[in-house]
Amino acid sequence: MSTIVDTFIAPPCSAEIEILYEDEHLLLINKPAGLLSLSGKNPQNLDSVHYRLVEDFPGCTLVHRLDFGTSGLMVVARNKAINAALCQQFSQRSVTKEYSALLCGHLERDEGIIDAAIAKDPARFPRMTICPIQGKPARSHYRVDARFFQQGEGGTPLPLTRVALTPETGRTHQLRIHCQQLGHPILGCDLYGGLLMAGAEHAPRLMLHASALNFVHPVSGEAVNVRHASPF
């Protein structure tokens, strides 16, 4: 069995967490790109969404996470009971999420489904891999919003596709590896080919943003449908 060693050290993140809504039960936030959701085991990776929020909201816990490079919407529970209630919604897949992303190249189809099981790849940590035998089922929908060219470094025109991504399941790196599987990795994705297209190596960040989140408030029972526009 191979030993997994996490050598990643997160660079300092000066961007602030934007609190979009708060009540006595939960918070809705906009996470900046370049900030860990949870502090890592390495003391150099102390800064995180949870580390910052717990200072002002003692007892708060994360219900779900976003990758380090992903920005956008997160719901944060302010106590254990709310965490349990929200986690149940996530496990029952009654929570729906939508992401905005820029993909390398121009997709042919206007919409589609990526159905590809995902497993850990211990030999290439932290990467995941597509594995129909050992992987957990994973399914994502995509819808093309625009195809365009963007001026890259040195004047290279980058063919890009803006898509809305809706994951049915919540596997680690699901959208990133599914887009690679589609043949159009997310621009700026260092793990799954998003820096390989000519001119893409200078992408300032992972172009993935959690833009919509829909769930039921665990106390009021009201539908919560929040949107946050992509910053790219």
Automatic annotation (TrEMBL):
Asked if Mitochondrion is a keyword of the record, the answer is no
Q: Does the keyword Isomerase apply?
A: yes
Identify the keywords attached in UniProt to this record, alphabetized: Isomerase
Write out the GO biological process terms. Answer: enzyme-directed rRNA pseudouridine synthesis
EC annotation from Swiss-Prot or TrEMBL: 5.4.99.-
- Residues covered by the Pseudouridine synthase RsuA/RluA-like domain: 25-181
An example of a Pfam family matching this protein is: PseudoU_synth_2
Report the top EC class in one word: isomerase
Question: Which parts form a coiled-coil structure per UniProt?
Answer: none
Q: Which GO terms describe its molecular function?
A: catalytic activity, acting on RNA; pseudouridine synthase activity; RNA binding
Q: Where is the signal peptide?
A: none
**Name of the protein this chain belongs to:** RluA family pseudouridine synthase
Q: Source species, please?
A: Kluyvera ascorbata
